Amino acid sequence: MALTIRPRIVLPFVASLLVGFAISETASAQDRGAFPLDKPASRRSGLVVGLSLGTSVTAGSGYPNSATRMQDPRYYAASGVVVGTSSTLMIMGALTDYLNFGFWGGGGGGENDDWKLTSAGGGVRVEGFPLFYLVPKLRDLGFSGQFGVGSAKMEAKHGASEGGEGVQSFVGGGVFYEFRLFNPFGTHFTLAPSVEYQAVFSDPFESHGVVAGVRLALYGGP
């Protein structure tokens, strides 16, 4: 029997696994006393307001959002590689030096010669810095996870194809490295190069993409 590998199952699993590994390492280290909870914050504290901007490489495939067209090969369409832009707004709290938690919302889009692809979403975001105490030189290396509801739409630039569209689940995972910029009035700004995987899954349509960019964040505390 042939083994079929489904990207819509495997890729989110890999992203979730990476984020879960970062969080589990943090928890494990905390259990060992490596991450003391009673230690005052030295790098991250307070409200966190962030903006992530980047260049995306995305692909979408599926059917129009119609019960009579889903799974009908005549209506199937695939965009191929689409290059565009992506932006995400984040509002979180720095719970400790090594854990941020809050919410996100954003979207992006791009096009190639034949297709225009757009996506948007929102939900929960978690950022972990599992090496904060374990490897001090890498204390600003972070792993992010985003989960929530997302939508994606693919429109044909030529011809009569109905393209594809769907609204359902969003999953994302990434890695970034923070550089501290300056500290105005007891706060501080950071700049972080980042790479993220993002995907929207629904019954009629799905899109997958990689975003390379920068994450700007203002921490309310020192």
TrEMBL record:
The chain crosses the membrane at residues 45-63, 75-95. It comes from the Bacteria. Keywords: Membrane, Signal, Transmembrane, Transmembrane helix. Residues 1-29 form the signal peptide. This is Outer membrane protein beta-barrel domain-containing protein. It comes from Pendulispora brunnea. The lineage of its organism: Bacteria, Pseudomonadati, Myxococcota, Myxococcia, Myxococcales.
